[in-house]
Amino acid sequence: MQLLGHSKRLILLAEDDIDDQELLENAIEEIDPTWQLVCIPNGRKFVKYLESIGEEELPALMILDFNIPELTGVEVVKELNDQGRFRDVPKIIWSTSTSPIFKAMSIELGVKDYITKPSDLASFLTTARYMLSFVKP
Description:
five-stranded parallel sheet
């Protein structure tokens, strides 16, 4: 996947599960092929990538797995909250866990929502549509 100099609208995904990456990418592509989903499978690298890009390259949406290597999705959001330039980019945490504690922790940090990962293909489309609803037109 292309990173810097992307020509499509960008969604940045922090996800280390290849299946979840592909399912979400396919769902978003089916809904609206003008989106480009770029996946970074590690929380620390996700933050470093964001810090390396200019304002004009900021993603329209960030989707973060709750449990990714090096920095969890929540830890990434905490770091990004300390940097004002990411404030207006909607962030979503998703996870296989239905823990109300994880959800409350995520929402408290200002993410748009905490979503439980879908368990079937059809639900990925519904979830992707919901995620895209947080993007400014």
